[in-house]
């Protein structure tokens, strides 16, 4: 066994269908195991344990440089489009509409950073389209602030944005 932890160690089952981008609290313990023939460094073991014990409800995308990670990424939708080798800026956007709060966010792949904000007020009508379009606006404003002439790819799962662009 490599690591063990209780609490918010994994995504809520079906989170992608429900739009609940948060970690779930389990009453069960989460354990990480490797083959008895496998060996990992103490630093790696510590990093895994710290990740399991993380209190944050969000996690940051991680893009490793190991050969196996590169092979995995090349088989994803973005990998098949060769997004990871794009010479310009790549932004991934998403919006959320949870009860009375709309949120918008982006992640900039080449700089491994992002931004987010809350949209509207509770008394206004809520719309997932508004949140998705707000996320695209955030990304485009960030690109505009950079004042460089690099091309931009904006990845979105918003049918409204994709059909109106």
Notes on the protein architecture:
The protein folds into 2 domains: 51 residues, no CATH class; 98 residues, Ribonuclease H-like superfamily/Ribonuclease H (Nucleotidyltransferase, domain 5, 2-Layer Sandwich). The chain starts with a strand and ends with a helix. Strands 5-4-3-6 form a 4-stranded mixed β-sheet. Strands 1-2 form a two-stranded antiparallel sheet. The radius of gyration is 19 Å and the shape is globular. It is an alpha+beta fold. 32% of the residues lie in helices and 29% in strands.
Task: Give short descriptive properties of this protein.
2 domains, four-stranded mixed beta sheet, 165 residues, 6 helices, two-stranded antiparallel sheet, single chain, alpha+beta
| Main sheet characteristics | 4 strands, mixed
* Rg estimate, integer Å: 19 Å
What CATH architecture of the largest domain would you give?
Answer: 2-Layer Sandwich
- Trace the largest sheet across and list its strands: 5-4-3-6
Number of helices: 6
Which segments are poorly predicted (pLDDT under 50) over 5 or more consecutive residues? Answer: none
């Amino acid at each position: 066994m490599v690591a063990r932890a209780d609490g918010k160690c994994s995504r809520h089952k079906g989170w992608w269908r429900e739009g609940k981008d948060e970690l779930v609290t389990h009453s069960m313990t989460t354990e990480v195991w490797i083959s008895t023939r496998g060996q990992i460094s103490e630093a790696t073991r510590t990093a895994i344990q710290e990740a399991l014990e993380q209190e944050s409800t969000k996690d940051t995308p991680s893009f490793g440089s190991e050969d196996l990670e590169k092979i995995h990424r090349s088989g994803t939708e973005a990998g098949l489009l060769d997004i990871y080798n794009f010479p310009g800026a790549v932004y991934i956007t998403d919006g959320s509409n949870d009860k009375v709060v709309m949120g918008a966010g982006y992640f900039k792949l080449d700089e491994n950073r992002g931004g987010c904000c809350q949209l509207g007020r509770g008394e206004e009508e809520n719309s997932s389209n508004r949140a998705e379009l707000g996320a695209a606006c955030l990304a485009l404003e960030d690109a505009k602030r950079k004042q460089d002439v690099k091309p931009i790819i904006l990845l979105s799962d918003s049918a409204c944005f994709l059909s109106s662009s």
